[in-house]
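Progress report, Aim 2. The chain analyzed during this reporting quarter is listed below.
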Amino acid sequence: MLANLYLIRHGETEGAGERRYKGTIDVPLSENGYRQIEKTALLIREILRRTGTGLSAVYSSDLIRARKSAELVASVFGLVPQVIPGLRERHFGVWEGMTFNEIAAQYPEAFTSWKDDPLHFSPIDGESTLEVKERAMQTLVPLLDRHQGETLCIVAHGGINRVILAEFLGLPLQHIFRIEQDFACLNIVEIWDGFPVVTLLNGGEHWFYGR
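Predicted structure tokens for the chain:
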């Protein structure tokens, strides 16, 4: 096996119920977000215990919601997360900080275009889906190469995780929103001689302890 990847989305952030495009804005975890990540960290520990596997490294986006989430995960394994800016969330340009309703009201045509075709449309001054995919994979591939035969964990964001998972699944990028990424969710990808196998998608404690 080339590498075993545990891909996590950060925990819930403050004001998550407002449904804002936070993008690259630094927003802290909510109290519930800390609890969510603590549970995910313990879930990973239990999975690794059952499989007799260790965790070699934890990597994180440089945004605080991912960094704090990664610190909680890494602490369970006596590790210190390594911060990589290339893992940060998509930049949403002029939409950053706005709610879905505000965007729909101020940029109705653009918002409809974005929902209908996120691959070819991007907000003004924002990143396109293709740009996000290129950045994510250029960041990820060297990490997988570095940890051949090992298990590594990456704590990132919904947008980054979706393009990575779409690449592994061979899913056209215009369909990335068919992949759900809940707060603090866990995805597991086993990579065999360059062939990725997604063994868990958007998992959580309900998935593991319900088995």
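Residues 3-209 form a domain with the Rossmann fold fold (CATH 3.40.50.1240). The two ends are 25 Å apart (CA to CA). These observations will guide the mutagenesis work planned for the next reporting period.
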